[in-house]
Design goal:
The structure holds 2 protein chains of 2 kinds.
Chain A (H helix, E strand, L loop, with lengths): L6 H17 L11 H16 L17 H14 L8 H14 L2 H13 L4 E4 L15 E5 L2 E12 L6 E7 L11 E7 L5 E6 L8 E12 L3 E2 L5 H13 L6 H17 L7 H26 L8 H23 L9 H10 L8 H12 L8
Parallel strand pairs in A: 1-4
Antiparallel strand pairs in A: 2-3, 3-7, 4-5, 5-8, 6-7
Chain B lengths: L6 H16 L2 H9 L4 H12 L18 H13 L6 H10 L3 H13 L4 E5 L3 E3 L6 E6 L2 E4 L7 E2 L6 E4 L5 E4 L4 H33 L1 E2 L2 E2 L4 H27 L2 H26 L10 H13 L4 H10 L3
Parallel strand pairs in B: 1-3
Antiparallel strand pairs in B: 2-6, 3-4, 4-7, 5-6, 8-9
Helix pairs in contact in B: 1-4, 2-3, 4-7, 4-8, 5-6, 5-7, 7-8, 7-9, 7-10, 8-9, 9-10, 9-11
């Protein structure tokens, strides 16, 4: 039971800090939910990748540093403390990459991961459909066998970053009449610029095209872009969902930095008494999240899997994120209404937290049934 | 960095849990609340024998300490089993008596469980002043051995009996380490509160799995599940704060652990009462022993407000 980092881990922290100090853009990049900002963030990813800081926990042969989970946590703390830009490649890095490490072929890893690490190819998640959100297995988009691959048809929606991304990954029904809805699904990667794909950007609350809907009309995908076995898509996808709710989607570093900035904002505003408890709770919440992650990482290194506990994580950070940003906007008062501030942008982003990656209602069901052992029932 | 209890620490918790499960603590609590201390003292002796109080006492005075992580682990179990008596106060006494003279005189008996202590600021309530063998008062001129206590008043938690210590008495230390003692008090209280919350959750999960309404267990209703999921989430994020505070013993970490564990425990108490319905509102049902303790611990050794002030002060 200790919180001490090894000299090698401390050296890694110092190296990351020095690099970030020398490279983080002095002026924040434009929002990555705009075309201009997306391009700027892509350039930043390339700069990170050039010195192998874009995916530190990946194997070196794909552009990483073999850094492991603890050093990844350390890097993330330094990254966000340095005020470095948001990560435009996050969907690919935190969702697709772990899936490829677990279920992909050597060829797929060699082909997909290096260009993901440099930001040359940015990936969008294409899971949700107009009638398949929380009940994801009810999806209807089809994959039909074709010569040397599959032909995709249907509609995907709420696809984050798809307005500007290059490629996407998602689940498709390859067996139109399975015995159970979770069967007969296939996990595929496809090109957002392939013939037959139409991308319609959707403005989020603040109007920025943060996601899109995708219309697929007989889009050809070669066999090499099937992840895992055809028909086994649900199992493959669920391992990704665990990652999404777990540590890697929202690193503690992000919230430690945000709580620190909130505290700074509160002090700059003269430490108003009405916000005192909320600021203190934001600070201890970030610390709790950090320590929870350290404990999870320690268990993981002992060979334990994280499993349904990732649902605790997801409920915690999504609610925390909103509370923190609400406090910031309240502190800003009139200025908080101005939609082009970094706080407002982060607030709007936080509002989606309880909705995506499996709604918090679904997460609470998982906590109740799988962690507390309560009986299943009608929803 | 390995932020995880080791095998020995987990075994320590498991052995305390087994011992306390076998001990019928609810009965000891009910006796205690009537001022009958025999059963509680017997329980106390077994807890001391397991080494719990020795964890705050340095080895030089026949203790095993200072070992805050093990102490936190132990206090989670004491909270889970609603053990009565001035548990935190005895730890606080051990951390206050640092000068060699008083340390030699009092600490070995505190470590062995032979004596129990209560501590309070002069004029404040001391917990279990009638039961404690050592009554320490934090007076303006230092730490005093109080000559006695005033009338016993009931607490919202029947297991905590409130008294005021009489002024005067022998001066034991003119400048006791109050800040250090407060850290141990808050850590132990936070761990105890976490244990109280975990017990409330566990008992409520069991209850809603058995209680049938509309032909099904009420635990199958989403409204019930979601309240319990929220309680679980709050407790599981308080847990690393408590253990992390025990590792660092930094004032802001300890304060964060105190406020978070106590709030999570108190919120769980509210949920537990609601989901038990009227049976939870009765004194005869054991749940009440944890419900009232969650409330009492919330303000013991640092109100939420004082703890939040400490968190912010660390960043000034």
């Amino acid at each position: 039971m200790d919180l001490d980092f090894t000299p090698a881990e401390e050296a890694f922290r110092a190296e990351a800090r020095a690099w970030l100090r020398a490279h983080v853009p002095p002026v924040p990049l434009p929002s990555l939910e705009t075309g201009e900002g997306f391009a700027a963030h892509r350039t930043w990813e390339a700069e990170l990748a050039a010195d192998r800081w874009s995916v530190v926990n990946w194997p070196a042969r794909y552009g990483g540093r073999d850094a492991g989970l603890i050093r990844w946590l350390v890097f993330e703390e330094e990254y966000y403390a340095a005020g470095a830009p948001g990560r435009v490649g996050q969907n690919g890095v935190s969702l697709l990459a772990p899936t490829l490490f677990d279920h992909g072929t050597q060829e797929q890893r060699a082909r997909v991961l290096p260009s993901m690490a440099t930001g040359e190819v940015v990936w969008a998640q294409a899971w949700s459909e107009p009638e398949a959100g929380s009940d994801l297995a009810s999806l209807r988009s089809r994959a039909v066998r074709a010569d040397g691959g599959w032909r995709l048809s249907g509609q995907k929606t709420w696809s984050s970053r798809a307005a500007f991304a290059d490629r996407a990954f998602g689940l498709f029904r390859s067996d139109p009449a399975p015995a159970r809805p979770h069967q007969g699904l296939t996990y595929l990667m496809f090109d957002l610029r392939a013939p037959g794909v139409t991308v319609r950007p959707i403005g989020r609350l603040d109007g920025k095209p943060a996601f899109a809907e995708l219309f697929l009309d007989d889009v050809f995908v070669p066999d090499e872009d099937v992840i895992g076995e055809a028909g086994q898509g649900w199992r493959v996808a669920m391992s990704t969902a665990g990652d999404e709710r777990g540590l890697t989607l929202r690193s503690p570093g992000r919230f430690l930095a945000a709580a620190d900035r909130l505290h700074g904002l509160w002090r700059d505003r003269g430490c108003p008494a009405w916000a005192r408890d909320r600021v203190a709770d934001a600070l201890s919440g970030a610390r709790a999240y950090q320590l929870f992650a350290y404990a999870a990482a320690s268990r993981f290194l002992d060979g334990e899997s994280i499993g349904p506990e990732s649902s605790l994580n997801k409920v915690f950070w999504s609610e925390y994120d909103i509370a923190l940003h609400e406090t910031a906007l309240d502190l800003l008062g009139e200025e908080g209404e101005s939609a082009d501030s970094a706080w407002a942008e982060a607030y709007v982003f936080a509002l989606a937290g309880p909705v995506y990656a499996g709604t918090n209602e679904i997460q609470r069901d998982i906590i109740a049934e799988r962690l507390l052992g309560l009986p299943k029932g009608r929803r | 960095m390995r932020f995880l209890l080791d095998t020995e620490q987990r075994a320590f918790a498991a052995s305390l849990d087994a011992m306390l499960t076998a001990a019928d603590t609810p009965r000891a609590v009910r006796d205690w609340s009537r001022g009958e201390h025999a059963r509680g003292r017997a329980l106390w002796a077994r807890i001391a024998e397991a080494g719990v109080f020795a964890l705050a006492v340095p080895e030089a005075y026949e203790g095993l300490g200072p070992r805050p992580v093990e102490l936190a682990v132990a206090f989670v179990e004491l909270g889970r089993h609603a053990v009565p008596g001035p548990l935190v106060e005895t730890v606080v006494a051990a951390t206050l008596l640092l000068d060699p003279g008083p340390a030699k005189r009092f600490l070995p008996a505190l470590a062995s469980g032979e004596s129990t202590a209560t501590v309070a600021h002069e004029g404040s309530y001391a917990v279990d002043g009638d039961a404690a063998t050592l009554r320490l008062a934090l007076a303006a001129d230092g730490l005093r051995l109080a000559p006695g206590h005033g009338p016993v008043r009931p607490s919202l938690d029947p297991a905590r009996r409130l008294t005021r210590l009489l002024p005067g008495g022998e001066l034991l230390a003119p400048d006791p380490p109050v800040d250090r003692a407060l850290l141990w008090a808050r850590l132990a209280t936070a761990a105890q509160a976490l244990g109280v919350g975990l017990a409330l959750l566990e008992r409520t999960v069991a209850y809603v799995g058995q209680r049938v309404q509309f032909g099904v267990p009420i635990g199958s209703f989403q409204a019930v599940k979601h309240r319990l999921a929220d309680a679980k989430t709050a407790l599981e994020f308080a847990r690393p704060l408590v253990l992390g505070a025990a590792v660092t013993m930094a004032p802001a970490d300890v304060a964060a652990a105190k406020v978070s564990a106590c709030e999570a425990s108190y919120a769980t108490a509210r949920t537990a009462l609601q989901l038990h319905g009227a049976i939870g509102y009765t004194a005869e049902y054991d749940l009440s022993l944890w419900l009232t303790k969650a409330r009492a611990l919330r303000t013991a050794w640092g109100t939420p407000d004082e703890c939040r002030a400490e968190i912010l002060a660390a960043r000034a």
